[in-house]
Amino acid sequence: MKRLAHVFIISCLFVLQGNAALPQVNLRDMNGRTVSVASLAQRGKPVIISFFATWCKPCMRELESINELYQDWQDETGVEVYIVSIDQAQDIHKVRPLIDGKGWDYKVLLDPNGVLKRAMNVQNVPHMFVIDSNGNTVYTHAGYTDGDEKEIRKYLR
Hints:
Structural class: alpha/beta
Shape: globular
Number of strands: 7
Strand order of the largest sheet: 2-1-5-4-3-6-7
Oligomer: single chain
Distance between the termini: 41 Å
CATH architecture: 3-Layer(aba) Sandwich
Radius of gyration: 15 Å
Strand content: 15-25%
Largest sheet: 7 strands, mixed
Helix content: 25-40%
């Protein structure tokens, strides 16, 4: 109960502050290393955080379309893309084969308990956040329609 209250407070603060810093949440990457989400925006370059699930068809289309532009975006802005799997613990074993099979070069974080998902008020996937080089959330978008990725470039600058 105490943990739930803590997550609720973080979620409220994040939503109320709008351009707030990323929440102080630790997740694991696919290699089991702990990653501080708050530190992702402290590297002086833009960051994209995209929530997805292995079973989500619109997520796959969004991640494929971003993948086609990712190298250009990196060359132009230095952006790092972190994708956050919201697959539950019993399905987390599906993430690595999916990523490897697609050949994506994204940094992958695992959120099987939905801690970051709740902290960032994500209701549905796909859900994307663009964080500028100063750590401000400058764009957020839920869902995916073909062509959405073209809107992102202006926020990366």
